[in-house]
Amino acid sequence: MNSALDDPYFAKTDWQQRVDAWLNDPAHADAFLDGNVQLVRQIMTHADSGLRMVINITAYALLRFLADRAYRNLYESPQIGGERKQPSPERLQVDQMLGFGADAKDYYFGAVALGGTGVRFYGEYCMVIKPLDVTPDTQVIDRDSYDLLLPPLSKHSGHEVFSRIVGKWANDVVPMLTRKLLPDLLGTNRLITTGTVSEMILHDQEFVEVHKRGPISSSSIEEVRQSPDEIAMEARIVARGNAGFPPTGVELRWIAQRNEVVRALEAEDLQYRIVTLHGRGYQWR
Fold it and tell me: Are 249 and 199 in contact (CB under 8 A)?
């Protein structure tokens, strides 16, 4: 019976070799493929608009972060919703599978993004980490680490699976993402754009995970991004109020907290942007 790890995607080679093997397969011949692979690398590595580590966070947690000037993981017992949180048994298990050992408390999780507003499931505000704060040896894996607890990956030993999906920021994140994107680039019959690459890299809750070792402070933040969706929601509440439909107490509190976030970001002199990313973007620079 075939194993999930028998797929060439999980080959016991480095990520660039997996990219090369895929491109050299005659079954993947495509007139636009070489050009698109070149564009993907160019887009990802652009100094101003290239790949970033991002962390999504709720409004309450962002206000706490700005007040404390320190981002806390679950090992530091942060207060969330009025309660002190601790890592779950599943989190403890996954952290051991990721090779953290006794140093798990020193790691902070994020995702790889190219523009956009991150994994909004974890919070509506997207904190972008400065490139210099992500060291070259920062660990990345090609998926949400909780996937290690689910079939078919859970049917294999943790070390065997982990060794096939791990990499380092400097050497592996670009080929790792390129290998992830290759099947979707096949047969496009057109050159890819920055917006499309951004969407393919981080789609819904499907992302490449980053494990940053060492603290994250307010000085680590390049900018804070937010989706236009929240702005549209706020505008709708205001418009309904102007039309004679008073906001509910929940809506008033939501707007007040958003205003508090803006004031706190301005006090810290942190750049705050409403982000959309479409079109060819930076690919021709």
Answer: no
Q: Are 184 and 32 in contact (CB under 8 A)?
A: no
* Residue 43 to residues 13, 48, 137, 169, 254, Cα–Cα distance (Å): 25, 10, 22, 16, 36
Cα–Cα distance, 184 to 127 (Å, whole number): 28
Can you give the length of the chain in residues?
285
- pTM of the prediction? 0.92
Dist CA 226 CA 120 (whole Å): 9
pLDDT tens digits for 4-62?
Answer: 899 999 999 999 999 999 999 999 999 999 999 999 999 999 999 999 999 999 999 99
Element (H, E) at 15: helix 15-23
CA distance 5 to 25: 19
The residue type of 134 is V
Residues 6+ apart with CB under 8 A from 175: 14, 15, 16, 18, 19
- How far is CA 142 from each of CA 57, 120, 209, 241, rounded to the nearest angstrom? 21, 18, 6, 45
pLDDT digits (tens, 9 = 90+) for 232-271: 999 999 999 999 999 999 999 999 999 999 999 999 999 9
Domain ranges, ordered by start, for the chain: 4-226, 227-272
Cβ-Cβ contacts under 8 Å for 35 (sequence gap 6 or more)? 191
pLDDT at 277: 55
- Return all residues near 131 (Cβ < 8 A) that are at least 6 apart: 52, 222
